[in-house]
Design a protein that fits this description.
Helix content: over 70%
Number of strands: 2
Strand content: under 5%
Number of helices: 14
Shape: globular
Distance between the termini: 43 Å
Order of helices and strands: HHHHHHEHHHHEHHHH
Structural class: mainly alpha
Radius of gyration: 19 Å
């Protein structure tokens, strides 16, 4: 019951934010919500599925680019373009996942990283469509979204709905089976579980919600750029999951808030954010391997939303 009380308080805080926060902080909160959804979508395959998805940002970028191109190049209505972005990201997840799930966990991550880098190069060089290294700016959005409070309201409502859907997924029989596969894929396969099908479905779902985050970014920023597809962004997302606690549902949200806030602060003093991110990752591995929420749950004896960290298990696909 206390958990629902906390959720209610957070919802109330998000609802009154446009009234009490200045524009910059309201924008920062909206960006944290978008990034938190992106990190939570990664955690579906990372923390719950045990798959080393090193380039999850590619689905975020695909969702954003498809929406932007559909609006600016194809003259689609904005709402139709916004709906197309997540669908395209899910389709990309299906294609990339079809090849990746046939490999062992490490090679899965390497192939996914390679395919994601290929998509980044295409976006970087295809000037007539993607704008190349300039990206696409000044994307027209509906009049109802042209003010910051309106864009924030859209972000808050959609992110809340997506997080509720992801929570339902991880608590469903599918989510519990996915955790069983993570802990011991060989045993799951012996028991008749279609391991590859579950992993592929998790990739498609994660890609879809990453695409939703990409579309929300377009609605908020009205621009897209190739760095959304670059591996550094994917590293940031990974750090968010690890920092917050990748074996908890709320961990990626906490990690997103910390990383986005820290990136904003560091960006005022130095351009070497990537270096700071690398140092943060090293410190995290050595001193806080369970993440913030995982550490708090261990210390306070709180009930975990997923099983404890599993011991390394062999992969049925070698």
């Amino acid at each position: 019951m206390s958990g629902w009380i906390l959720v209610g308080l957070l919802a109330a805080a998000l609802a009154v934010a446009p009234v009490v926060l200045p524009p910059f902080l309201l924008y920062l909160l909206a960006l944290i919500l978008v990034t938190g959804l992106l990190a939570t979508s990664l955690n579906l395959v990372l923390g719950y599925g045990g798959l080393y998805q090193f380039h999850h940002g590619v689905f975020y970028g695909i969702g954003a680019y498809v929406a932007a191109v559909a609006i600016t190049r194809l003259d689609w209505p904005a709402w139709l373009a916004f709906a197309a972005g997540p669908v395209a990201a899910a389709a990309a997840g299906l294609v990339i996942g079809f090849f990746c799930v046939r490999l062992s966990r490490l090679y899965f991550g390497m192939l996914q990283l390679s395919l994601g880098s290929f998509v980044w190069i295409v976006a970087l060089r295809w000037y007539p469509v993607t704008g190349g290294d300039n990206g696409i700016h000044g994307i027209p959005v509906p009049a109802a979204l042209q003010s910051l409070p309106a864009a924030y309201a859209l972000v808050a409502v959609v992110v809340a709905g997506c997080l509720a859907a992801l929570w339902a997924v991880v608590r469903s029989p599918f989510g519990l089976t996915l955790q069983a596969i993570r802990d011991n894929p060989q045993r799951s396969e012996v028991m008749g579980v279609d391991v590859r099908a579950h992993q592929l479905a998790a990739m498609v779902l994660a890609a879809f919600f990453a695409g939703v985050a990409g579309v929300l970014y377009v609605a908020l920023e009205r621009s897209v750029f190739p760095n959304m597809l670059f591996w550094v962004l994917s590293l940031e997302i990974l750090v968010m999951c690890l920092l917050g606690g990748w074996f908890t549902f709320s961990g990626p949200l906490v990690g997103a808030a910390v990383v986005v806030g820290l990136r904003t602060l560091v960006g005022r003093y130095t351009e070497y954010w990537t270096l700071v991110l690398g140092v943060l990752l090293i410190l995290l591995i050595f001193f806080l391997p369970e993440g913030i929420m995982g550490h708090l749950q261990q210390r306070w004896g709180a009930h975990r939303t997923v099983a404890p960290r599993p011991a390394p298990a062999g992969d049925a696909r070698g």
